[in-house]
Amino acid sequence: MERYFPMRKVPAKAGYKKGDVFVLVGELFGRGYANGIVDEARKAGMTIVGITVGRRDSDGTLRPLNPEELAEAEANLGGRIINIPLEAGFDMEPAADGQSYCDILKGIKPDAWESFVCEQARLDEVRAKGVARFRGNLAKVVAELQASIPAGVNILFAHAMAGGIPRARLFMPLLNRVFKGSGDKYLQSEQFWDSGLGQLCSASFNEVSADTFSHLIEMTAPLRASNTVRYTAYGYHGCEVLISGKYVWQSYTPYLQGWAKIRLEDHAIAARKEGVIATVYNCPEIQTNSSALFMGVELSLYPLLQSLVSEGNGPVAREFITECAALLNDGVTVDSVLDAAQKYLANPVMQAFSELSAWPHHSTREQMELMLAASAELIALNKSPKEIVCAPLSRAVFQAVGFLMFHDSWAPEKPVAWLNHDIIARQLNS
User: Fold this and answer.
1) Cα gap 20→74, rounded to integer Å
2) How many Å apart are CA 73 and CA 27, to the nearest integer?
3) What is the 3-state secondary structure (H, E, C) of the chain?
4) Does domain 21-294+398-429 have CATH number 3.40.50.720?
């Protein structure tokens, strides 16, 4: 694939220093990918600035954070938050008739989901309203940044906005069938994606996960006039992991946000052509609060245990392996976990999903049932289903991803980079 650029070398230390500014575009919730790069910015002594998506009152009104919410968010970030709501998307924007998509979807019963028609005129109308709101508030954020950031410093933006599932109860039972369904409950992802609801999701994913990056780059141009500005974003486009002793590209299926993630890459490629330092880093799968819907996404995390050994087996790697081993049932070894994961990843059924150029792939019943069974089998090897080895492995990934993104962003080679298990393990062992 022409744009497949795996990072193979740990980047040199970046030149960011005290007085430079790090801006997180998107909120810091729990422990996820963005925590790693925030930690690196803090280590470098940068001034840390955050942006909030705001909150919705019970009547649907979008508002800034209240004093308690703001204090909690700033304590979590370790920096100042510009309290202007940068929520993206359009699901709660009313059209000319006064109805939003959230209003309309309340009237559709789960068994009648295929009856919904995504009318292009309505979609265009509310989408334009959502973009206008986002860009209007982003202009205010940029004005605050201009007023507070001195000329001549480095600015690093980390775009961490993702998601976009419309806020309607109708979606949850359907998405559970798409991502967790087997037997009679299985719903093929392509059937959902080609429906009116799927078309609505696609447009929403594009707005939230991809186009916000383009708006950010365009509207922060004034900052580039007097500062060196760099942009990073979190992508996903599959990941190389060890399968049968070799690094092989694989991906979680079905990943319906995949088309939006390709669009995100396109924005970085277009920006780079204009001389803007923008890079999308395609990260390995991890297990987070937000990924809980995607049962099976954690299966490709397990081979990282083997990569930690094969790419140096340093003290940090051994600490992670020891921590993982302590979470397993009595009599269960790390090797037995790796064997179970390999049995799934090397299964002939998965060969149909191994073509990078055909990504994102839609699900099949056979593939979903294989994945869900393997996920359950591996979770059962842990002492507690709430504390599985994927938690420390996820922490290892976002720590390494944060380091690699932060330091590579200083002089990135390409507008898109893949952070596969080899470079993750190599960085942790360095």
Assistant:
1) 19
2) 8
3) CCCCCECCCCCCCCCCCECEEEEEECCCCCCCHHHHHHHHHHHCCCEEEEECCCEECCCCCEECCCHHHHHHHHHHHCCEEECCCCCCCCCCCCCCCCCCHHHHHHCCCHHHHHHCCCCHHHHHHHHHHHHHHHHHHHHHHHHHHHHHCCCCCEEEEEECCCCCCCCCCCHHHHHHHHHHCCHHHCCCHHHHHCCHHHHHHHHHHHHHHHHHHHHHHHHCHHHHCCCEEEEEEEECCCEEEEECCEEEEECCCCCCCHHHHHHHHHHHHHHHHCCCEEEEEECCCCCCCCCCCCCCHHHHHCCHHHHHHHCCCCHHHHHHHHHHHHCECCCCCHHHHHHHHHHHHCCHHHHHHCCHHHCCCCCCHHHHHHHHHHHHHHHCCECECCECCHHHHHHHHHHHHHHHHHHHCCCCCCCEEECCHHHHHHHHHC
4) yes
pTM for the structure as a whole: 0.97
CB 49 within 8 A of CB 145: yes
Tens digits of pLDDT across the chain (430 residues):
578 999 999 999 999 999 999 999 999 987 789 999 999 999 999 999 999 999 999 999 999 999 999 999 999 999 999 999 999 999 999 999 999 999 999 999 989 999 999 999 999 999 999 999 999 999 999 999 999 999 999 999 999 999 899 999 999 999 999 999 989 999 999 999 999 999 999 999 999 999 999 999 999 999 999 999 999 999 999 999 999 999 999 999 999 999 999 999 999 999 999 999 999 999 999 987 666 678 899 999 999 999 999 999 999 889 999 999 999 999 999 999 999 999 999 999 999 999 999 999 999 999 999 999 999 999 999 999 889 999 999 999 999 999 999 999 999 999 999 999 999 999 999 9
Residue where the block lists tokens 């059937």: 191
CB atoms within 10 A of CB 299: 22
Task: Identify residue 209 by its one-letter amino acid code.
Answer: S
Residue (of 265, 46, 69, 50) closest to 153 by Cα position: 46
Q: Taking CA 320 as the corner, what is the angle to CA 317 and CA 326, rounded to the nearest 5 degrees? A: 140
- Tell me the CA distances in angstroms from 386 to 216, 289, 299, 339, 381, one per residue in order: 37, 12, 16, 22, 12
